[in-house]
Automatic annotation (TrEMBL):
This is PilZ domain-containing protein. GO terms for molecular function: cyclic-di-GMP binding. Residues 25-105 form the PilZ domain. The lineage of its organism: Bacteria, Pseudomonadati, Pseudomonadota, Alphaproteobacteria, Sphingomonadales. Pfam families: PilZ. It comes from the Bacteria. InterPro entries: PilZ_domain.
Length: 117
């Protein structure tokens, strides 16, 4: 293979590895949930989202809104209200976010309980 083709392959591979690392860069497991909520974007628009998993420091939502890594939003959570989150990755309607401040343990269980009920 030519050096030009190999260089292109290495760059492509690097992008794949980087994208994989972003989605797996978690310090704690996520709880699977199915909770309809809303998020406010940086431009002040409020959009519908579906929260599909949650941990004290992050979550994944589904939405058709166009966001990218580094964008921020406020996501409405039961029992704690709006929390600020930074988009870590977005792919095909799935959006992985890191919360600006982790949800304290005593409040986290209340959030999960409210989502279940």
């Amino acid at each position: 293979m030519s050096e030009m083709v190999m260089g292109s392959f290495r760059r492509s591979l690097g992008v794949v590895i980087a994208a994989t690392n972003l989605s797996d860069d978690r310090s704690e497991p996520r709880d699977e949930v199915h909770h309809r909520s809303s998020a406010m974007l940086a431009d002040q628009r409020r959009v519908s989202v579906l929260i599909v998993n949650l941990s004290p420091s992050g979550l994944m939502i589904r939405s058709d809104v166009a966001v990218g890594a580094g964008d921020w939003l406020f996501i409405r959570l039961p029992a704690v209200g709006d929390v600020r989150a930074t988009v870590r990755w977005a792919l095909g309607g799935r959006i992985g976010c890191q919360l600006e401040r982790p949800i304290p343990a005593n409040r986290y269980h209340a959030v999960l309980g409210a989502m279940a009920g």
